[in-house]
Amino acid sequence: MLDINFIRDNLDLVEKSTKEKGYNIDLKKLLKLDDERKKSLSAVEKLRAQRNEIAGKMKGGKPSPELIEQGKAIKTELSTLENKLGELSNSFYDLLRSVPNVILEDVPLGGEEDSVEIKRWGDNKKEGVDHLDYATERDWVDFERGAKVAGAKFYYLKDGLALLENALIQFGIKKVLEHDFHFTTVPDLVSSKILEGTGFNPRTSDQSDEYFVEGEDLALIATAEMPLTGYHMDEIIDEDKLPLLYAGLSACFRKEAGTYGKHTRGLFRVHQFNKLEMYAFCLPEDSPKIHEKLLHIEEEIWQELNIPYHIINIAAGDLGAPAAKKYDIEYWSPVDQTYREITSCSNCTDFQARNLNIRVRRKDGTIEVLHTLNGTAISLARTLVAVIENYATKGGKLTVPEVLKPYLGQDQL
Predict the structure, then answer these.
(1) Residue 203: per-residue pLDDT
(2) How far, in Å, CA of 344 to CA of 197, rounded?
(3) Residue 84 and residue 212 in one domain
(4) Which terminal residue of the chain has fewer beta carbons within 10 Å of its beta carbon, N or C?
(5) Is 344 assigned a catalytic role?
(6) Looking at 8, 97, 269, 361, which residue is catalytic?
């Protein structure tokens, strides 16, 4: 959520950024609602003061009929005004929460096709092995039985592929620990307050990507970013304790709404997968530096796995509501002869922290909203795809990447 005073003082900037992200929001209506809300609040506070004054006069003796009638009239008027204030406040905050974060200056403008490649690494192979055919032939993955027990796009991993996933998890944990992250496991469910606070607001209702628990204020998480953001909700953190770095291992659940027509074969796009997510709470002036740090760690992981990739600076129209800037790493798919998304890392500036009231106490005693960032360490399902495509041979065994051998105890699977 943006600061309403920031919106008021930077209306043209916020309006331009909102449109560049693909949102259609009436910001002038938002400011009008804010004015009406403030006016209504002032009237309510004035009446409350009058009510309290009358209540004071009634103490210690029998009040006059005039004073009693005056008290009744104020009570009736106050009830009406408080109801009006409640309606105005609800309308105001609903609209304010729909305003996306402002993009940073170096974010490319346009849609998905306008994202800018900023780096390539590795030698792209000219052919590879289809991961689904390869894993199915070896009975390493079972989508048929997954569908039988849970529905389409759920699956079982078995034997070699399950062991490979475990090795990737251990490798990922080792990497984040090397960079001083606190390793955590997190709740797989969050409340609507956390869901909304992280800014996962779809542009339309049919794009909602979360599975909700009927009858309870809970949803399955789409990423560990959600519970990690809420970890310090309603807290004030001393400046000298920042940055705080966390890595959360969790299952992720996604309906994948709005992804029709995108690459969906096998493990690439599924409804449940495991992921190791990096998360940072930091000072506002440090968030650009932390963003680059998260990207650097992601690069280290892919370089050590020796899988070619490129980095793209995501265009405004392809950014979600919370992100002010986002990098994606896309691995080279020798099967499809193209790059496919494998990790992302986003600077959400103060957007999520303001939603969830997470602040920093400066050394001089002043308090302000801090910044939050997130980045994928390893998204397991897609990483398995990338490893098979780049390390398996048709009809042959899968060569284990060098960095995973300590966790598997063998050179081939």
Answers:
(1) 44
(2) 20
(3) no
(4) C
(5) yes
(6) 269
Selected catalytic residue, list 254, 340, 354, 359:
254
Residue 338 corresponds to which amino acid? T
Report pLDDT for 210: 86
- Alpha helices of 284-346 — where are they, by DSSP H? 287-304
Indicate if 332 and 373 belong to the same structural domain: yes
Assessment of whether the complete model's pTM goes beyond 0.90: yes
d(CA 234, CA 31): 26
Backbone region of residue 106 per phi and psi (left: phi > 0; alpha: psi in -120 to 50; beta: other values):
alpha
CA 286/CA 136 separation, integer angstroms: 46
Establish whether 265 is a catalytic residue: no
Q: Which residues of the chain have pLDDT under 50?
A: 203-205
In this prediction, residue 206 carries a pLDDT of 52
Residues 213 and 183 reside in one and the same domain: yes
The answer to whether residues 210 and 311 belong to one domain is yes
Q: What is the pLDDT of residue 258?
A: 53
pLDDT per residue as tens digits for the range 326-344: 999 999 999 999 999 999 9
Q: For 162-186, what is each residue's pLDDT tens digit?
A: 999 999 999 999 999 999 999 999 9
Do the Cβ atoms of 313 and 108 come closer than 8 Å? yes
Which backbone phi and psi does 349 adopt, to 5 degrees? 45, -130
Q: What are phi and psi of 406, to 5 degrees?
A: -60, -25
Is residue 195 within 8 A of residue 219, CB to CB? The reply is: yes
Strand blocks (E) in 132-288: 141-142, 156-157, 182-185, 189-190, 219-220, 236-238, 244-253, 272-282
Reply yes or no on whether 87 is catalytic.
no
Q: What is the number of domains present in the chain?
A: 2
Nearest C-alpha neighbor of 211 from the set 256, 241, 180: 256
Residue 304: CB atoms within 10 A of its CB come to: 14
Among residues 37, 333, 382, 389, which one is catalytic? 382
Cα distances (Å, whole numbers) of residue 379 to 59, 272, 276, 348, 384 = 67, 11, 6, 20, 9
Q: To which H or E segment does residue 145 belong?
A: helix 143-150
Among 77, 82, 300, 341, the one annotated catalytic: 341
325 secondary structure, DSSP code: E
Q: 250, 333, 344, 346: which one is catalytic?
A: 344
Amino acid of residue 157: L
CATH for 315: 3.30.930.10
Angstrom distance (rounded) from CA 223 to CA 187: 11
